[in-house]
Specification:
There is one protein chain. By secondary structure, the protein is of the alpha/beta class. The chain has one domain: Alpha/beta knot, CATH 3.40.1280.10. Helices cover 42% and strands 23% of the residues. It has 5 helices and 5 strands; from the N terminus they run E-H-E-H-E-H-E-H-E-H. Strand 3, helix 3 and strand 4 form a beta-alpha-beta unit.
């Protein structure tokens, strides 16, 4: 399974970027990070639309799209692992996780997504969401393989 993480903003050197890289390095799946930058000065709504277009352009053809958004479904790690396992077993070859900028995702992108997930009711910095996603992908892998990393 190939995974694309398309995210608004460029991660600067530091703990968030290092943590993302550390978890991604542990995965058996190919994971590509595509960072999106919109430099145009616009209104919030216009910027969200431009970000949505750029994020969708980063999605490989035929990939299952997962939007990470505070309005999405909050799942347990076990449920997330089962979802990944189903996609894997159903022959899904590509997944694209989309992370918006500071103003969130445009409604058009959420509607286009095959799934919309949330990391809970708390607001997370969008750079930290990358690290949280990477950790949950690794945790899901360990759950699916019976590795003791995940302890319920």
């Amino acid at each position: 399974m190939n995974i694309v993480v398309a995210a608004v903003g460029r991660a600067k050197p530091g703990p968030e970027r290092d943590l993302f890289a550390a978890y991604i390095a542990r995965l058996p799946w190919r994971v590509d990070l595509k960072e999106i930058e919109i430099k145009k000065k616009t209104t919030v709504d216009a910027r969200r639309r431009l970000e949505a277009e750029a994020l969708l352009a980063a999605v490989p053809e035929g990939a299952t799209i997962v939007a990470l958004d505070e309005r999405g479904k909050s799942e347990t790690s076990e449920a997330f692992a089962k979802r990944l396992g189903r996609w894997r077993d159903d022959g899904v070859r590509g997944l694209a996780f989309l992370i918006g900028g500071a103003d969130g995702l445009d409604e058009s992108l959420r509607k286009r997504a095959d799934a919309t997930l949330s990391f809970g009711a708390l607001t997370w910095p969008h750079m930290l969401v990358r690290a949280l996603l990477a950790e949950q992908l690794y945790r899901a892998h360990t759950i699916l393989t019976g590795h003791p990393y995940h302890r319920a």
